């Protein structure tokens, strides 16, 4: 399945924003933070690599710590130029990437499952391209683009002065993937000053309609560090437990030593919230049917100079959510035994909120979460 290969996402911010009076449209504030923050919050978890296509001084986007890539074709030639730029970047920097997915940076409500649904569309049909649609309105800027077409797109833009996305996609066939427009159109874009006020109202509507987090429980995460015989690395790291009543601990901060022995040490690496959502009770019930049930821990390499070598990214009790992180080669997903008191808390939540609605599991790597595939044998210590 193509979804197993790395996906590059591109935030298209190369426009002139004339209808907003010029300037960087995505930097306008909505709900206490720039529109771009809303877009990144939704787009970044869906892709393996995220870049920002913008012209001018890249320094103005420095706080986002994203690669900022200017159009490879001069003259502000529109979103096709940004897509071509992203295809070139992917080919050079992520050579095994098959697709680029594009996001408009003035659409703060974009779907959190956009990439998964676009991938499913191109995997399941003969079409090479896919984009979103609500009702009878297509949204070609929210599309998926094969890296293999980059040279053909360049020729169309340079030799034929191609500028319209629709004109180019007609050549290859495109699947329109439908999305619901209620209660909020996920592709509503802040294109004019008056749209910003409208977006504030939509933000409140979206918050009111969102699945509630009914309960949250803070869990400390224990990581085992072992000496390694590998000449390329000094240590290996493995989550081994979670515990309640942990003091606050920033994942980016220094780890706290708990115990150590010959060639190994255990650390309190982070304290993170375990969140239970009403819409995920089917996944929790599958987990509770394991013997024993698990808490799944997602680790990723530290990126900043002051970070520990491994960062605890999140904890979850839903095996389907944990599975979605196994596709990123830079992340490790491990299951540890769920403490009995946590299992009882989750069971009470499921008994209270579960409804018999089938859980729509995305097409991913084949494995049965009921078998506890994230669990590995633990070393002593």
Compute the number of helices: 9
Q: Show unreliable segments.
A: 17-21, 357-381
Strand order of the largest sheet: 5-4-1-6-8-7-9
Return the structural class: alpha/beta
The tally of beta strands, per DSSP, is 16
Full CATH superfamily name of the largest domain: Spore Coat Polysaccharide Biosynthesis Protein SpsA, Chain A
Query: Which CATH architecture of the largest domain is right?
Result: Alpha-Beta Complex
What does this structure look like?
- The chain has 381 residues and is an alpha/beta fold.
- It has 2 domains: 208 residues, Spore Coat Polysaccharide Biosynthesis Protein SpsA, Chain A, CATH 3.90.550.10; 159 residues, no CATH class.
- The strands form 4 sheets. A 7-stranded mixed sheet has the order 5-4-1-6-8-7-9, with helices on both faces. Strands 11-10-13-12 form a 4-stranded antiparallel sheet, with no helix packed on it. A 3-stranded antiparallel sheet has the order 15-14-16.
- Strand 14 and strand 15 form a beta hairpin.
- The longest helix is centred in the middle third of the chain and has 17 residues.
- The chain is globular and about 70 Å long.
């Amino acid at each position: 399945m193509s979804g197993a290969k790395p996906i590059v996402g591109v935030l298209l911010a190369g426009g002139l924003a004339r209808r907003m009076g010029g300037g960087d449209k995505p930097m306008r504030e909505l709900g206490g933070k720039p529109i771009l923050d809303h877009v990144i919050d939704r787009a970044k978890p869906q892709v393996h690599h995220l870049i920002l296509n913008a012209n001018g001084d890249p320094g103005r986007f420095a706080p986002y710590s994203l690669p900022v890539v200017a159009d490879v074709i001069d003259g502000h030639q529109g979103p096709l130029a940004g897509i071509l730029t992203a295809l070139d970047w992917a080919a050079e920097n992520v050579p095994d990437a098959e697709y680029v997915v594009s996001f408009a940076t003035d659409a703060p409500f974009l779907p959190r499952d956009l990439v998964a649904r676009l991938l499913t569309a191109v995997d399941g049909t003969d079409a090479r391209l896919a984009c979103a649609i609500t009702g009878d309105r297509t949204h070609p800027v929210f599309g998926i683009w094969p890296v293999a077409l980059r040279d053909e797109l360049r020729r169309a833009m340079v030799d034929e002065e191609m500028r319209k996305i629709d004109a180019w996609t007609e050549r290859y066939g495109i699947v329109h993937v439908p999305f619901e427009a209620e209660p909020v159109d996920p592709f509503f874009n802040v294109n004019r000053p008056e749209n910003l006020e409208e977006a504030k109202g939509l933000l409140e509507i979206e918050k009111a309609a969102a699945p509630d987090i009914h309960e949250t429980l803070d869990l400390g995460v224990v990581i085992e560090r072992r000496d390694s015989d590998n000449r390329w690395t000094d240590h290996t790291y493995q989550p081994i437990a979670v515990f309640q009543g942990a003091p606050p601990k920033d994942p980016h901060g220094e780890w706290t030593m708990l115990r150590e022995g010959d060639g190994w040490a255990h650390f309190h690496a982070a304290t993170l919230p375990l969140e239970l959502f009403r819409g995920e009770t089917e996944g929790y019930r599958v987990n509770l049917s394991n013997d024993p049930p698990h808490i799944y821990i997602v680790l990723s390499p530290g990126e900043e100079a002051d970070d520990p070598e491994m960062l605890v990214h999140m904890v979850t009790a839903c095996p389907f959510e944990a599975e979605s992180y196994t596709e990123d080669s830079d992340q490790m997903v491990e299951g540890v035994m769920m403490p009995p008191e946590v299992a009882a808390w989750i069971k009470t939540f499921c008994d209270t909120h579960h409804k018999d609605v089938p859980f729509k599991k995305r097409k991913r790597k084949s494995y049965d979460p009921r078998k506890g595939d994230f669990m590995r044998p633990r070393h002593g210590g």
